[in-house]
Design goal:
Helix content: 55-70%
Strand order of the largest sheet: 3-2-1-4-7-6-8
Number of helices: 22
Mean pLDDT: 78
Strand content: 5-15%
Shape: extended
Amino acid sequence: MKKHRRWLRIVILSLLSFSVLAPIMLGSLRLKALTSIAGKREFIEDLASIKHRADKLRFNAVEQEGAKELKGPKLLVFKEKDFSSVVRHSSDENRDLYHPGNAPNASKLLEASGEYYSSASGKGNHKIQQNIKRVNSRKKEQPNHGGKHDQHLHNQERGSRNQHLQSQSRVLADENIRRARDQLIRAKSYLSFAPPSSNSHLMKELRTRIKEVEQAVGDAFKDSDLPRSASQKMKAMEASLSKASRAYPHCSQMVAKLRAMAYNAEEQIRVQKNQESYLVQLAGRTTPKGLHCLSMRLTAEYFFLQPEERKFPNQQKLNDPDLYHYAIFSDNILACAVVVNSTISSAKEPEKIVFHVVTDSLNLPAISMWFLINPPGRATIHIQSIENFDWLSTKYNSTFKEQKSNDPRYTSILNHLRFYLPDIFPALNKIVLFDHDVVVQRDLSEIWSVDMKGKVNAAVETCLESEASYRAVHMFVNLSDPFLEKRFDANACTWAFGMNLFELQEWRRKNLTGLYRDYVQLGLKRPLWKAGSLPLGWITFYNQTVALEKRWHALGLGYNAGLSSSDIEHAAVLHYDGVMKPWLEIGIPKYKGYWSKHLQYDQHYMQQCNINE
């Protein structure tokens, strides 16, 4: 019994001692771990502080060295007899500089560039001051005779001298701007060598100098000259660049960096140009949201009309050969409206005008509804759908389906329908064909009296190389093909679609529509021309075209922003050929006014679809 109690007492004491000692042991172990972590952190912080002190001492040493030992750039004066040798020597040094292993030569070039710009600036200023003194001294030495003739000669001489001084000052200003740009490039290159998180005194100084010089260059573009304070900023920049060249003496790395920067810049420019071209072409093929809305609303309103309300007046004039007949092939409501409105507003006898609008079945209701609520005044209008031409769908439709192109502007039946004018208008002898992207500014009655000389087509030529509208046959037609090489002259003058007068009787007699279909079938077998109707027009109407005067048709408003305002004002017809159509946002702004003034933007449907000028 006693033994049992004794063992029980020992167990209890052991448990008590364990409960006391265990927390002490665990606490000591945890404290030891925390102490080791803290030691490591202190060790890392010590290393960082040592490194920071080393960097600080390094850049302080550079600054002190630059402040004590750096001197201004030496002005080198070359005599004429030594100039050629200096040029040969400098060209040899520049050739050796760009070898990867010639870092010292590169360092010399960086130093020489600063010296050159400083000497050039000093020479230019000194030369101008000498000229000013020479002019003032001549003024004092010149006697005053009081004669009008002498005074006139004196004024002319003084004016020529002033012009010479002004030209010299402009040359000096351009030189200073080039020098400032060179400094900016060098400074940004040095900044690229430093780590992104570097905030050293030298890097901060370079950033400050870059901002100052960039501001000076920006002010120079506004005033066409560098301000006076710019010279001080450029001197400060040159001093900072000298410090940077001492901090980073390995100029072979600078050369490699500059080459990489130039390559990257060229690559970015190429990519941006390709992207811009693609987006412009894509935007040219799209339909604006407002135009789509307008088409939907007009279509809905059209089907609410009774059959007798859908008819246009004066339909007995449609086949009268004594009237002026104009054809428009389009699926764009606003484009058709502008062509019709501008032609009527410029006509002296609008009652003699007949418009023939041909569209597809999808847009027929909308275009019809537009002209029912906006009648063309005293003129006559007739709107047809290509589905109404049974002969086209059965006899010629296969030709259009075989056209291979990703651009719907080239594969559209409306685009090739111009080659079937005699079949569409069998009762007419003459007709003027408009593209839907034109604006009429003058009365066109005079064009109907043009002497066709037994030919079929009358158009404005585009064969002058000095003009932006220049087009050569070889640009669109494959003249290396033996078939085309034998039949067509590579130097033949080209012409433009947009506004063309066609003699339909001669067209029928010469069966040019059949000739066109033969060329299309031949082009399906091998590549003879680029997609589109223009090269087909050139070969179909080869030797069958009469040249019109330039005043009849102004081209390029859809791609050329540099057209002469006088040529635009005096032209009878303006043509927005190109992808920058006036109804698109990408249209050239300064040309949009000629087009938009023929639309009524306060109309109910235009307001509903948010179509504004």
